[in-house]
Amino acid sequence: MRLRISEISRLLPIAKRRIANTLISWLQKLLLTEKYKKNVFNKEYSKHVLMCHLPEAFDKKELPKYHSNLTECYTIAKCFDKLGYCVDCVSRTKTGIDYSKYDIVFGINGNAFMGAFSTDEKVKPLKIFYPVGGETFFNYRETALRNRDFHDRHGKWMLSSNRYLPGDIRAYYEANLSDAVICLGNEYVFSHFVNEDKHKNKYRWLPAFYFPTIETPIEKDFAKCRKNILWFGSSGMVHKGLDIAIDFAVEHPEYTLHICGGSRLETDFWNHYTPKIKACDNIHLHGFVDIESAKYAQILSQCGILLNPSVSEGGAVAVLNVLGNDALLPVYSKATGVDLSHCGVCVTNVTYKDFEHAILELESLPTEDFEQKAKSAHILVRENYTIKQYEERMYNHIKEIIERI
């Protein structure tokens, strides 16, 4: 059977993404396979845990803040140390591990954690899975719907800007086969995992955290900045709704859009949007912005709305980092995995029309109320999403799992 040219053109983005993922996995395996940190805190406990995560977290005197994962890994290791476990940490790509010495295997998805399920029947470590993204099937379904929304508006597919979970379908098995699961995010994220497994009591969830980088509150005029929108994110730009943000700014030139982050590797996305952006004076591309820099604070000072139309997260640290450091009114999707109560606008369906409606509805909000909501979001995040709270919640979850099993 011969494929028509139109069919081949539709398959090309998928093929490109598949090839890219294969190359990334190969490079990760090549570079990370041998990373295996033994007894990271140099303790002499009788019990042992293997963390399948990021051994690099124990190489640095000061952990960077460009991503939360290294801090998560180090903090979780501290929890096991407090509970009296010697901690080994191995890259998630590692294979050929001897699990016989471990009482517990804790990890994100990958070869190292998956290998714990194929051990000898006499070797049965307690397996605790730590998914840092949305539930597998929910993630794929929602990102497909987002691509349909994009196609309906633009007449083309943008499949290379999806956000595929590392390990693909293995994450589903790891969640369902583990003895316990600790989901990063909120009850909404948690519910999708629980709905896919009849063993519902083994699931727990905990909120993500933000990095405090701006101590002095930023003074700004909300009457001026309330029509300045900030999109702050990383790769998988259709998945994270950057297309919605740009389309809104194109259609509504009375608003100004600031874009921080976004992957330059997603060339199909930029080939489509660069001409549109160049034609608009109200869209500013900042690229990657260090959250500890003066530029970061300066951008935040100009913006009144934080826009995050992501379709699936495990707890959007990008949202927390912005709101924890400055007062912006969040317009965000339910799928961000963050609970902001009455402080912002939570949009259930991630479509352009729904987010356009949510932003335009704010025009009728008095500036005093707008400012109050933004400041309430700032306070809420600072008081409820700290690293210390993350550590306490994680420690309590692990302790309860060990005692129960």
Labels describing this entry:
single chain, Rossmann fold, 42% helix, 15% strand, 405 residues, 14 helices
On the 0-100 scale, what is the average pLDDT?
Answer: 90
Supply the helix-strand structural class: alpha/beta
Output the CATH homologous superfamily of the largest domain: Glycogen Phosphorylase B
Main sheet: strand order? 1-3-2-4-5-6-7
What portion of residues is helical?
Answer: 40-55%
How many domain regions?
2
- End-to-end separation in angstroms reads 55 Å
Write down the overall geometry: globular
Q: Ranges with pLDDT <50 over ≥5 residues?
A: none
Give the helix tally.
14
> Tally of extended strands?
13
Write down the CATH topology of the largest domain: Rossmann fold
Tell me the major beta sheet: 7 strands, mixed
Order of helices and strands: HEEHEEHEHHEHEHEHEHEHEHEEHHH
What would you say the CATH architecture of the largest domain is? 3-Layer(aba) Sandwich
As a whole number of angstroms, the C-alpha radius of gyration is 22 Å
**What percent strand?**
15-25%
- For the record, the CATH class of the largest domain is Alpha Beta
Can you walk me through this structure?
- The chain is an alpha/beta fold and 405 residues long.
- It has 2 domains: 27-134 and 170-209 and 387-404, Glycogen Phosphorylase B (Rossmann fold), CATH 3.40.50.2000; 222-384, Glycogen Phosphorylase B (Rossmann fold, 3-Layer(aba) Sandwich), CATH 3.40.50.
- It contains 14 helices and 13 strands.
- The chain has helices at residues 5-32, 69-82, 111-114, 136-154, 170-177, 187-194, 222-225, 242-251, 267-278, 294-302, 317-325, 352-361, 367-384, 387-404; strands spanning 36-37, 47-53, 85-91, 104-107, 126-129, 180-184, 203-206, 228-233, 256-261, 283-287, 305-308, 329-333, 345-347.
- The strands form 2 sheets. A 7-stranded mixed beta sheet has the order 1-3-2-4-5-6-7.
- The termini are far apart.
- The mean pLDDT is 90.
